[in-house]
Known about the structure:
Butyryl-CoA Dehydrogenase, subunit A, domain 3, 2 domains, Rna Polymerase Sigma Factor, Chain: A, 14 helices, mainly alpha, 72% helix
Amino acid sequence: MLDCYTQDLKHKEDELAIQYLPAVKAMSFRLKERLPSSIDYMDLSAIGTEELIKLARRYDETLNDSFWGYAKKRVYGAMLDHLRSLDILSRASRKLVKAIDYAIEEYRVVHDEEPTDEELAIILDENIVKVHNARIASSIYTVMPLHDQLHVGDEGAALVRIEKEELVDVIKKVLGSYTQREQMIIQLYYFEELTLKEISDVLSITESRISQIHKSVLQKIKNSIGVSNG
């Protein structure tokens, strides 16, 4: 698909886009590293390339002195929009994800590790395919920005009433209740965009513990602004 784009360049502005194709490919690869194997790197790269070409064609260097500075967030946003379009968390799967999260924590207390899909299916008396798909959906969901995650599904309606500045204050307050190392996990995951494995290597914390802290932060934020668990 990328070859099709490069062969169909019709505007002189596309030469600008070509310069930054390696950056888009690198961005796609980094995002893919944080996603389940079912998400295709080539799809992300193609989406990013298409957006890059659109941006190059309407770029005004008199308004922005750095094309990549202008394009980077928009290209990444286009990739996230693609993930959102997959309808990753239907109402039914959101409920199942919550049940899975609870079951995983209970299992970890006893076994000090996460259960397999097969074990979860038995624990929850649920179809293994549904469990597998829900865990994939949950994995995709967690790469979204914090603000995005807090506005998903039915819970979003409650959050519409919260002013952005108020939400930022709540997030800061919640993070302040965690240790410096736990705050570092959120920093590395959301702002440095490291994978769970990379964070695990940096901080010598297991990936499952990192995931647990991440989910705990989200739940505390929701509790602080009166969002139900249901």
